[in-house]
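Q: Please design a sequence for this.
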């Protein structure tokens, strides 16, 4: 694995030179808090699995627990529009590196999309080693289950990456994924026979042939030979599938797959008229800046994917909680006579979730798609404050457009809509946007980094995004929480809007101060900012 060591060394040097030293302390604090929580959960699992008296409880919950680990590892990156760290194969293709070494390194990089689960499984493994009832062949089952998740992660990522790189079928593939994710949600809310099967899969004893069932049985030394054979069979199958997908990806030309058709008509149509709207509303240069953002974002696969996710995945993942008590029945809770929170505020919750999906593009790294072209902003005779305002107005337009589409889909689904709910959704989104734009403008100039607009998903690890959500979003959403607390305490919608109005005024003040600070900081750090935006990823996309 000499070549692998060289790749890792080159990646280390790239990261060391790429990320600013000023952000190391902040990243360390965020990482310490986030992974500290998961480490505490891991220690808790160590204590549970090390007690011989917990064998019965472990037998009942372990299969469903491993299923949840599998789902988190494979689905959470998809829901957050991330793929984790991965090899930049187009940069390594010209070097005489055996494909199997690259595949092995790609498998190890799948740890980046499930580091939290590795911590939990490590705690489980250590607890089993201390438990005389489980320390036989059981600990090996944990390692086999980790290997299974790593292998299937490579195959799914490569397959999905190739499908989403094809220009004509990208959106179709995405909607198939949405339909696949929707079926379990809809079956649970319908209370039909399918819902009981899903609940049995999650809460009962699932079929013995599933990999998580076989791993659970092997961890408990139950039918060890049969369970080991099943696990090895699954690992062999997903290993062959992943190697097949990886080999196809090695030969895949993403640029050719995403190239526009040469038969496209040159006549201006609806989209051209749409692109020209900002110049008709705002005077140049602000109108031209917004028009440029419109053209670039709508042609970017990454932006289109997260925009689609807002009114598809966003609607589906909150649907069970919105449809009633326990997520399975609509209407008030019988013994309390109140309507569940998610049912009353479903539209607002989905709107805020869609904002979170758009946050990387619209708030936290607004110059990422510009990359080295961002130097034009410092050369053109345009105040940098106006550049930020143009990007912020573009973000607000697409956020409100997203919410409008969400409202339309909710109407088609028969969800309760009304003037009060519509006004609340737009009001809450507007206030949240003020605080997110304030923090995002500062973040965008201090921690600017280049982003590939042709990639449908982020390559950054999901855990990094979750850590940022854990620290930054509670602070920015605290004013909104105060408004909801006031409505609950006083049982008055008027009090809610009064507190929200105070939040809006405070948000405008903070936004103005943050805007001026961001423009001043950009002028002081423009060389560093342009250098960061001009740099590309190393041999590993991070």
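A: Design:
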């Amino acid at each position: 694995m000499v070549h692998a060591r060289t790749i890792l060394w080159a990646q280390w040097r790239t990261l060391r030179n790429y990320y600013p030293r000023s952000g190391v302390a902040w990243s360390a604090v965020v990482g310490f808090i986030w992974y500290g929580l998961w480490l505490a959960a891991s220690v808790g699992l160590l204590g549970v699995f090390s007690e011989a008296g917990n064998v019965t409880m472990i037998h009942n919950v372990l299969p469903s627990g491993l299923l949840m680990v599998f789902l988190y590892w494979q689905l959470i990156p998809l829901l957050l529009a991330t793929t984790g760290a991965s090899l930049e194969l187009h940069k390594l293709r010209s070097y005489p590196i055996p494909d199997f070494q690259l595949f092995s390194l790609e498998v190890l990089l799948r740890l980046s999309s499930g580091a939290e689960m590795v911590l939990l499984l490590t705690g489980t493994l250590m607890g089993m080693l201390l438990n005389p009832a489980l320390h036989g062949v059981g600990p090996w089952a944990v390692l086999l289950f980790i290997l299974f998740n790593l292998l299937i992660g490579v195959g799914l990522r490569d397959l999905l990456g190739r499908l989403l790189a094809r220009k004509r079928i990208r959106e179709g593939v995405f909607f198939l994924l949405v339909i696949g994710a929707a079926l379990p949600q809809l079956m649970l809310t319908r209370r039909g026979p399918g819902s009981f099967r899903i609940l049995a899969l999650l809460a009962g004893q699932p079929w013995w042939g599933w990999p998580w069932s076989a791993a659970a049985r092997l961890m408990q030394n139950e039918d060890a030979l049969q369970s080991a054979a099943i696990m090895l069979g699954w690992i062999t199958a997903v290993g062959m599938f992943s190697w097949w997908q990886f080999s196809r990806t090695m030969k895949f030309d993403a640029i050719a797959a995403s190239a526009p058709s040469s038969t496209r008509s040159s006549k201006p149509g609806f989209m051209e008229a749409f692109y020209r709207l900002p110049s008709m509303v705002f005077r140049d240069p602000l109108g031209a800046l917004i028009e440029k953002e419109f053209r670039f974002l709508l042609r970017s696969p990454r932006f289109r994917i997260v925009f689609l996710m807002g009114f598809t995945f966003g609607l589906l993942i909150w649907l069970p909680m919105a449809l009633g008590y326990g997520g399975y029945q609509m209407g008030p809770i019988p013994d309390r006579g109140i309507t569940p929170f998610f049912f009353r505020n479903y539209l607002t919750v989905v709107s805020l979730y869609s904002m979170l999906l758009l946050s990387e593009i619209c708030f936290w790294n607004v110059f990422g798609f510009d990359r080295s072209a961002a130097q034009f902003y410092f050369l053109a005779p345009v105040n940098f404050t106006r550049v930020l305002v143009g990007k912020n107005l573009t973000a607000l337009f697409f956020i409100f457009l997203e919410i409008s589409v969400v409202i339309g889909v909710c109407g088609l689904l028969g969800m309760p809509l009304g003037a009060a709910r519509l006004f609340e959704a737009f009001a809450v989104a507007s206030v949240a946007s003020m605080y997110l734009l304030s923090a995002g403008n500062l973040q965008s100039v201090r921690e600017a980094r280049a982003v590939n607009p042709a990639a449908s998903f982020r390559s950054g690890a999901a855990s990094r995004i979750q850590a940022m959500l854990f620290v930054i979003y509670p602070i920015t959403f605290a004013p909104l929480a105060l408004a909801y607390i006031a409505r609950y305490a006083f049982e008055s919608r008027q009090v809610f809007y009064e507190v929200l109005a105070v939040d809006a005024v405070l948000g405008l003040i903070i936004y103005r101060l943050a805007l001026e600070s961001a423009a001043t900081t950009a002028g002081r750090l423009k060389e560093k900012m342009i250098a960061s935006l001009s740099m590309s990823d190393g041999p590993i996309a991070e």
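Q: Thanks. Anything notable?
A: The mean pLDDT is 78. The first strand starts at residue 86 and ends at 87.
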